[in-house]
Amino acid sequence: MAKVTNRKDYRPYPFEVEQCQLRFEIQARHVIVSSRLWFRQNPKYSGRYRPADCILDGTGLEILSIRLNDREQEEGQGYRYDGRKLELTGTAEMQNFYFCAKVRIDPYNNKSLEGMYRSGDILCTQNEATGFRNITFYPDRPDVMSRFTTEIIADQKQYPRLLSNGNLLEKKDLGDGRHSVRWEDPFPKPAYLYALVAGDLDLLSDHFITCSGREVTLHIYTDKGKTSQARFAMESLKKAMLWDEKLFGREYDLDLYMIVAVDSFNFGAMENKGLNIFNSSLVFATDETATDATYENIASVIAHEYFHNWTGNRITCRDWFQLTLKEGLTVYRDERFSEDHFGSEVCRIQQVSNLRNMQYPEDAGPNRHPIRPDSFIDINNFYTQTVYEKGAAVIRMMAFHLGSEGFRKGMDRYFERFDGQAVTCDDFVDAIQEGGGKDLSLLRRWYEQAGTPQLYADSKWDGTKFSLKLRQENPNAAAPSPHTEKTGTSASRESSRPIPPPLAFPIPLALYDHNGTKLHEETIMFSERETERHYTLNSQSKPVPSLLLDHISPVEVHYPYSDEELLLLISADQDSFNRYEAMQRYQQKLLLAMNPEQTTEPADNFVERLRSWLTAQCAAGGDAAMPPRYLAQLLQVPGVQILAAAQQPPQFQALHQVREAYCTKLAGHLEEDMLSCYHALAQTSYERSDLAIGKRSLRNTLLHYLSRLQHNRNNGGKYDELASQQYQTSDNMTDSYAALQALTHYSPGPHSQAAEGALAHFSRRWQGDFSVLCRWFALQAGTPKPQTLQKIQELENHPLFRQENPNMLRSLYSVLSRNLPIFHDKSGAAYQFLAQRILQIDRFNSMTAAGLAKAFVAYKQLDEEGQTAMAKALQLILQQDGISDRLYEITSKTLEQ
Ligand code: BES
Ligand code: ZN
To answer: Boundaries of each Aminopeptidase N-like N-terminal domain copy (predicted)?
Structure first.
């Protein structure tokens, strides 16, 4: 039976663990784990609650021995073990005691990729959030922090590298072909940050001199022969270290920082103290194998995990409900890092676009929750866009409110006060507000409320005064609570929704006159006491408002803009985000007014505006005043996900068709300009400067527009030719991948010969490169063609497809679920297919299965036919015996929200 944990029920752990000594004997078929733990009563507990016996977590462990105070214990006497919890009888009365356990685990057959497991020939660990209990008995919760030492004994040949957290104390040759090492981590930490790696790895080594002059050794461990592909990751690490010193005054605290790349990993990367473990797809990059986007991803994930050393490791979470304390804050920090390195305007647009495409749907769906959730069955289901991205957005509001100096002072106070502790989101806000010198109580409600606030704005101008009326609504403020009864009954729990209390947030805005001159700029702050706000300003002409500059608050703004007003903002808005936003709004309006039978033309002055940008870019060879990368973003048409959010019920196929028709029209109007610009943007040699990246981005955007003309016109395969040419001559992954997409995505029927040829070539060329191969699978699963589902089924049997690898699984199944016109096929075939695969995957990797089950997020928004089809798929999952609790949590909430 699935058990619900509530935030309100938090209690400190009755004991503290002074020391934890671990010893791992790695043998051919299993690993023997011996632990020695020194416990003492926790004053935070004993002062307030009745004494309780010590209970340790430990899932499916084979006990070899349990000792208490050096005496061997018997099951039923000294301890009781039910396969999940180990209860130590009689410990409630002990001031302190010494506990030893010896267990046997089998990492070789652990396909869940939690706890200790095998990735290729490497043994490694993943302990966040609750993996450590699969390794040994321990109070596996983040507020129990202890000093860990590790001894590892293994075969010298098979496992020449033996790594764990902290400093290497000793290395010994044991003579019999085995060797041992001892590690010590001087910093107390919770078990989720514990890590161990053993394998035959190559090493890329470097160093960093910290601001106080200490030398830190930097090691990146990889599979044999791959270290040269980790150079970019290493450079990124050094940049992140420098940036954190400069921007936050944070210096690294150990003499060694290690990163290990593994192929089998459930997530992107993990911040274990001094020993990060990374999905290899986020470490390896060469110009031939990595797109520009991959490079940026790598830099930001490396930075993210590094930044956790202070925001997460030195100061950690009191309980898992506080997850956004470390994740939201660290995402905010990695976002700022990326902005400083790749340009804030392009980064900001990307961030908000991700928020809209991923977080808003989650916040309107069955698994919506406040950034600090109130209850869960499995915390692993709450590593969400909401906790991460919305969590970061809330901190961005605080930073905006305090100003950068104030926020820095607040952060300084936070580090000063809580270093070495496990704390709460409230503690964080307290410190930020004290250090920052400004009251933040008005922003606290963001931690309690789910849903994306909708801001409805309207205005009047009476000849002398401009008045703006703002009203907020949050229809999804309440989160559905988890179900514990595993029944299939779907008694709808749709309750009447009480009106939620309002949220406070800043709305920076600017007003423009009809010539595009900025008249005024100021920030209006909603207080937590008002759902409506009126704002008046003297104005001799009717101004056009540009609202929520830089999208500083995670809300959606609705304003009845006329086309003319939007065109004005498109030309004149000085806020680079809102200029993009005006483009989005203009096109969204147009697209939502269309249907596949009746498509309308974009206005001439809109088309001419785009033409003038292209002409300028063409004349400047891509180096015009408007950076090419930004122009590429301006030319991005709102995706089906975003359009669907504005339509009830969403018609995914129709939206896709309309969007394609629109892009084709635009390309038709601008064909010559696009083509000349495409040629003008060609580069003679590969570079990774901002400008070179921007040129590639714009050029590939244009190629995609032009490729749509291919099939509308009788132009003799001209653009297939262009894309093929680009594919064949490209010396970098950005351009080859974009060309491959152009070749495969836009023809209505089966692939052209050129497309088939290029696809076959690509898989032959990259069969030895795991990450690139995943992208090859993903490209095909993401193709918006009716054949795609069948293609995916063929690809599952492809000799290079690895059925148990999460990257591979995601490259087919997550990508399918985001391929909206295909996933939401009227027959429901894709729903059924995904449900079946989720069930299969749940048997060996429930983390990945539960993640995939989030694909059904749109259930309640669908039309009746769609809901019926999706309900069948959800029921298929729920009716299966023995599904994991985490898959149950996601699926039951979806069906019965
Ligand atoms: N602490 C997480 C890793 C993690 C994720 C552990 C989920 C347990 C469950 C890590 O810091 C993280 O957030 N990784 C992200 C990438 C990051 C750049 C947002 C990931 O793995 O997706
Ligand atoms: Zn993180």
So the answer is: 101-193
Residue 526's CATH number: 2.60.40.1840
Q: Taking a C-beta distance cutoff of 8 angstroms, is the pair 279, 297 a contact?
A: no
User: Rounded mean pLDDT of the chain?
Assistant: 97
Q: Which ligand is nearest to the CA of 380?
A: 1
Same-domain pairing of 640 and 706: yes
Closest residue by CA, ligand 1 atom 18? 301
Q: Is 308's C-beta closer than 6 angstroms to any atom of ligand 1?
A: yes
Contact between residue 161 and residue 152 where contact means Cβ atoms under 8 Å apart: no
Q: Which atom of ligand 1 is nearest to the CA of 301?
A: 18
Is the pLDDT reported for residue 489 higher than 80? no
Ion ligand 2, residues whose Cβ is below 5 A away:
327, 330
Pocket test for ligand 1, best of 332, 383, 848 (most atoms within 8 A of CB): 383
Q: Could you tell me if residue 753 is inside a domain?
A: no
* 463 and 443 co-located in one domain: no
Measured CA to CA, the distance from residue 64 to residue 27 in angstroms comes to: 15
Nearest CA to 372 out of 481, 449, 480 is that of: 449
**Which amino acid, residue 37?**
L
Is there an atom of ligand 1 within 6 Å of 660 CB? Answer: no
Question: How many CB atoms are closer than 10 A to CB 888?
Answer: 25
Please, are residues 98 and 68 in contact by the beta-carbon 8 Å criterion? Answer: yes
Comparing C-alpha atoms, which of 390, 386, 408 is closest to residue 399?
408
Measured distance CA(242)–CA(250) in Å, rounded: 9
Ligand 2 centre to CA of 771 (Å) is 21
Query: Which residues are known catalytic residues?
Result: 305
Q: Which helix (H) or strand (E) holds 732?
A: none
Task: Check pLDDT > 50 for residue 492.
Answer: no
Residue with tokens 């105070």: 69
The closest residue, in CA terms, to atom 16 on ligand 1 is: 268
Output the CA angle 567-568-571, nearest 5 degrees.
Answer: 85
Residue nearest to atom 3 of ligand 1 (CA): 270
Helix (H) or strand (E) holding 15: strand 15-26
Question: Which residue has a Cα nearest atom 21 of ligand 1?
Answer: 268
Total length of the chain: 897
**CA-closest residue to ligand 1 atom 8:** 128
Structure confidence by residue, pLDDT tens digits, 580-615: 999 999 999 999 999 999 888 999 999 999 999 999
* Cα 320 to Cα 129, 182, 388, 809, distances in angstroms: 8, 30, 13, 27
| Residue 3 within a domain | no
Are residues 545 and 522 part of one domain? Answer: yes
Q: Best mutation site among 266, 278, 305 for ligand 1, i.e. most ligand atoms within 8 A of its Cβ?
A: 305
- CATH code at position 129: 2.60.40.1730
Task: Tell me, yes or no, whether 702 lies in a domain.
Answer: yes
**Do 173 and 265 lie in a common domain?**
no
Whether residue 270 has its Cβ less than 6 Å from ligand 1: yes
Tell me which residue has its CA closest to atom 15 in ligand 1. 268
Q: Kindly report the CATH number assigned to the domain that includes residue 207.
A: 3.30.2010.30
Domain that holds residue 576: 562-713
Kindly state if the Cβ of 277 falls inside 6 Å of ligand 1: no
- C-alpha torsion sign, points 639, 640, 641, 645: positive
Shared domain check, 283 and 163: no
Reported as half-sphere exposure (CB side, CA atoms, 13 A), residue 110 has a value of 29
Please answer whether residues 59 and 25 qualify as being in contact, where contact means their C-beta atoms are separated by less than 8 angstroms.
no
CB-ligand 1 contact for 378 (6 Å cutoff): no
Helix residue spans in 553-689 (DSSP H): 563-572, 576-592, 604-619, 628-634, 640-645, 652-669, 671-680
Ligand 1: does its nearest atom lie under 6 Å from the Cβ of 128? yes
- Asked if residue 802 belongs to a domain, the reply is yes
Question: Domain of 847: which CATH number?
Answer: 1.25.50.10
What atom in ligand 1 is closest to the CA of residue 267? 21
Dihedral angle over CA of 877, 881, 884, 890, nearest 10: 30
